[in-house]
Amino acid sequence: MRSSRTCPLWIRHCLENLWLALLLLPWHASAVPSYARQTGQPCTACHVGGFGPQLTAFGRQFKLLGYTLQAANGADVPLSAMLVESFTHTSKAQAEVPAKGFSRNDNLELQQVSAFLAGRLTEHLGVFAQATYSENGGLLGWDNIDLRYARTFTGPHHGGIWGISLNNNPTVTDVFNTAPAWQYPYMAADLAPGAPAQPVLFGALGRQVVGLNGYVQIDGALYAEAGVYRSLSPSFLRRVNADYGGRLGGITPYGRLAYTWNLPAGSFTLGGFALDVKRGLTTTNAAGETVALAGPQDRFHDLGIDASYQRIGGDHMLTANVLYVRERQRLDATFAADGAEHLHGTLSTWQANASYWYRQTWGATLAWFAADGSRDGLLYAPSGRPDTRGASLELDWNPFGRADSWLQPWVNLRLGAQYTQYMRFAGRVHNIDGAGRSARDNDSLFVFVWLAI
Which 3 state secondary structure label does DSSP give 43? Predict the structure, then answer.
């Protein structure tokens, strides 16, 4: 049983029923306008390259204002949908199939079909609510949720925006594309090998928690956000087909601070993140369900710094993003369960990318990533280290999204090809699994069609 300190029963039931209602709303809403129809602006007004999720300055303000800005003839309850079809090839066939129903290599996949309730609900209340089906797993479940109340304020010397967000994923509230929830790659292969270890900030709590965040932006420059997260029950997460990774201990605090310098042709932002997590392990009950395991909890302290630059205007656009996160670990639960050799450890991750867009249509992105951590033969078996280095190149074509595009604002499309190369994978350059497999064998080609309506 949960301790009475975790959350009063009636509050938890109310929150879980609210989340379930948000999951179901997209399928029953009758209106179908997108954000572009609501605002009367083309997709290029809010998004770099004419397609999400990378935001322009206008797009950031639209989100901070709670998705409520609308044109005189804008619709109040927009509904939209998204489909992603992809092909994934790895340099060498994987030792095992990456998921049930797929091959060891050269996989075609209906990677994602999503429905969104996304836009203005009242004058100061807006929502971004996503439900997603994936062929990998074959389940329909809830995805990112961000319900916002926002208002503007003015004072004798300063003005700005303040708001409150009810959400299910730390960093989903963020408006900069350095945040793990929205960082590059904006679409990635889920059937190719990925980084063997990342800090908790990189999505480990996504869709498994409920959080309440308050934020303020002052003079369009200083941005501050603070929030707290609690676990959702395993039974509720099964209802919405979300993973359960363990019960959080007490309140999980999250903080974000950023400052933006607005330049004549763009902007530069410098900021930081903080997340403090206590989390227990899981076990499987007699019914085969994942449930919380009683006992000690692991502790993770994540601190990150980030920077982003945008040069926007005319036919040429340039963006760059950098994020560094260092995690300090105290693994009381994992160590006691013989899952780690050491009680204490660290894990660090670098992410950097730069994009160029021509006429909001043709784009190229070059990215670099790296992970380093403490040596631990059990936690990072078989190599004993999480160290990984790699780079990727992505080429994109967005034929729609501009003001003069075909069927604007009803249809948008991105065709992309992404190649990822590893210089080091899980601590080894050559033999990483005892079978002669090298880091380069995990290199992958990912080709996708991303349609939004």
Answer: helix
Residue 288 amino acid letter: G
Per-residue tokens: 108: 């075609």
pLDDT in tens, 43-95: 888 899 888 899 999 999 999 999 999 886 655 557 889 999 999 999 999 98
Q: For 406-417, how does the pLDDT look when each residue is reduced to its tens digit (9 = 90+)?
A: 777 778 899 999
Those residues whose C-beta lies under 8 Å from the C-beta of residue 251, and which sit 6 or more positions away, are: 228, 229, 230
The single-letter DSSP state of residue 50 is G
Task: Give the model's pLDDT for residue 14.
Answer: 46
**How many CA atoms are closer than 13 Å to the CA of 142, on its beta-carbon side?**
30
Asked if residue 414 lies in contact with residue 51, where contact means CB atoms within 8 angstroms, the answer is: yes
> Are the C-beta atoms of 417 and 87 separated by less than 8 Å?
no
b or e along 262-292 (b: 16 or more beta carbons within 10 Å of the residue's beta carbon)? eeeebbebebebebbbbbbbbeeeeeeebbb
C-alpha separations of 58 from 5, 41, 52, 433 in Å: 42, 10, 13, 48
Question: Residue 231, Cα to own-chain centre: how many angstroms?
Answer: 18
What gap in Å lies between CA 316 and CA 296, rounded to an integer? Answer: 54
Which pLDDT tens digit goes with each residue over 241-280? 999 999 999 899 999 999 999 998 899 999 999 999 999 9
Token pair for 196 = 């063997």
d(CA 380, CA 388): 12
